[in-house]
Amino acid sequence: MMSAQPDVYRPLGSTGLVCHALGFGCYRIADGNEDHEAALRHYLERGGNLIDTSANYTDGQSEILVGKVLKSFPRDRVIVVTKAGYIQGQNMTLARSRPFPEVVQYGAGIWHCIHPEFLETQIVQSSQRLQLEMIDVFLLHNPEYFLSHQSHGKELAATDHDEFYRRIGQAFQFLEDQVQTGKIRWYGISSNNYGLALSDPTMTSVQRCLAEAEGIGRDHHFRVVQLPMNLYESGGALEKNNAGKTVLEFSRQRGLGVLVNRPLNASYRDQLVRLADFAKRGQGPRTKEDLLSLLNPLREHEHLLGSRLGISLEIEDTKTGLADLLEQIVPQLRSVDDWDRVVGKYVARPLRRWIEGTESEHGSDPAWSLWIQQFFPLVQSTFEEIERLIQGGQQSVSDEVRKKLLEAGYPESASPLSQIALSLLLNLEGLSCVLAGMRRPVYVADAFASLNLPRVDSAMVLKNFRDLS
Fold first, then answer.
1. Residue 366 main-chain phi, psi, to 5 deg
2. Which range (56-60, 168-172, 336-340, 365-369) has the least confidence?
3. Which of 91, 100, 121, 314 is most buried, by the most CB atoms less than 10 A from its CB?
4. CA angle, corner 227, sides to 31 and 264, nearest 5?
5. CB of 113 within 8 A of CB of 95?
């Protein structure tokens, strides 16, 4: 075991940009949430300098918050990465009113597009929300939706892959034009499938993406790739799927910066494994009384609606208030996966319809405007507390991960599992930045503490861990 610490600041490939080893991942970050804003400011104040967001994160609210916070910091001190490709929310409304070419209608409520006509709208909107004249790094967001869609009901053919990379090249040509006009500095791709085995027909190749850029010219600006990587999804460091090299090896040799997402949220056997501790040793899972306590502020706010405006918050079908509905649903959930499956369909969507209906009737009432303004951040914080409560029952899974880490060669450690999981990635050669979800200041502190853990042979530990899984 080595004692040297990982380099805190690293080159982002051959862009000339130097980034902090820990990036601020903005998935589920939203404007109006005080914790989220405080966490982002705390990250930047501690020396962090790379923010990764996307046009579809909280339907644009993530970019809006980033733009607001950036006003307090020198522009040249922060690297801003954003992404586009998803057609959901506001973009779905846009796409229905203005049909774009080459849209992948993957499923109900989730389309995808990387055609230049769509990308142009996204760069304009993202720049406005971020309040930036130039975006540092612009990424195509999960373009492999095309391959997944084509594979429905049939085997993928070589022609499907050829079409996929033709679309990539077409997008790159447009992005080169955006570089020339000063809208973006560099571009790249974020793909969940970069780390898959060569045998997987939906694997996306960094090598072939680079070839599309090189076909445009030697001075192309394709310089950044992003992919998931964690204890269970370590293909980017282990799979030799690019001319006999891993994504990290190939990217390092060809001057590509590598951003890693989902370091603590692993997908394993169709389940989400959260790589963190949720309870202290000897502490049992949280109780129903804990749930009632965290729901109290929401319930009291609902009562204000009735006393001040004479309105009842009633979720359709159930005819109950939001707090009462959550009190019924949450005890039935066994994992965060269960919560993610339930919250959208049975809570968020009917709640949104109730808000829209009430807004149309009472939107001009100042009392309603004040109530709903306070309601949104309260709902967000309540949902986050519910997620933490559910996670508390998953400590046994975290204990099993620790046991497997020991078997894989990681030394005995009292450090939090989240710090160990981050530290392993930070020590991988060729990795530019690990994007961690840090929605609260305490998460920022936890992530930065991972920089102080002793170095180990991360590639060896990850390989052994995969062999044991």
1. -60, -35
2. 336-340
3. 91
4. 65
5. yes
